[in-house]
Amino acid sequence: MKIAVYPGSFDPVTKGHLDIIERASALVDELVVGVLNNNAKTPLFSAEERVKMLVDVTKHLKNVRVEAFSGLSVDFVRRCHAGFIVRGLRAVTDFEYELQMAQTNRSIERGIDTIFFTTELNYAYISSTVVKEVAWYGGDISGFVPPEVTEKVYEKIASRKADGNQGG
Ligand code: ADP
Question: Is 127 designated active site?
Fold first, then answer.
């Protein structure tokens, strides 16, 4: 059984992520989307919220499972009994970091290979960070994130702004 893990922050999931999930899931028996619960980053959405959104947008893919994890990706990959890590490459800027991560992971765990997908040209410029920035200033994000996610981002940002104002 071929199992792969697609780890990331997915804060929030974008159309670019979904494209990778669809293409990667077609190659393996099971794809586990691992939602990183990283203490070093302050996410807009909690890990549970990110998992829920991913479950929602991948419900048409029967061999995709979504799970939150913390700690090292390779440890999570091992726990999933997976042999592959899936990552997306948007531009040259992604390359250096991704190559370093893939080599590090392979030196920690020789049984794990990283598979890179080149991103769909239409989505190559999309990042979760840009989505949050555009939404913060009231721009249209419907072209960047799946329809189920759009309103959730606006609502979350509105509540963040309200919290900020309350705090002075
Ligand atoms: P991380 O914080 O691990 O970079 P992200 O959620 O930003 O997590 O990205 C997870 C993976 O998805 C990375 O491999 C990244 O290169 C890829 N990715 C990010 N944005 C896109 C996109 N627009 N199209 C395809 N892949 C993407």
Answer: no
Centroid of ligand 1 to alpha carbon of 17 (angstroms): 6
pLDDT in tens, the chain (168 residues): 999 999 999 999 999 999 999 999 999 999 999 999 986 778 999 999 999 999 999 999 999 999 999 999 999 999 999 999 999 998 888 899 999 999 999 999 999 999 999 988 899 999 999 999 999 999 999 999 999 999 999 999 999 999 876 544
- Residue 70 annotated in active site: no
Residue from 17, 50, 65, 132 carrying the catalytic annotation: 17
User: Which among 84, 139, 153, 142 has a CA at the least distance from the CA of 116?
Assistant: 84
95's CB contacts (< 8 A; 6+ apart) are: 89
Which residues line ligand 1 at a C-beta cut-off of 6 Å? 8-10, 14, 16-17, 20, 87-88, 90, 94, 119, 123, 126-128
Handedness of CA 104, 108, 110, 114 (dihedral sign): negative
Atom of ligand 1 nearest to the CA of 89: 16
**Could you give the CA distance from residue 16 to residue 145 in angstroms, rounded to a whole number?**
8
> What distance in angstroms lies between residue 166's CA and the mean position of ligand 1's atoms?
33
Answer yes or no: pTM beyond 0.90: yes
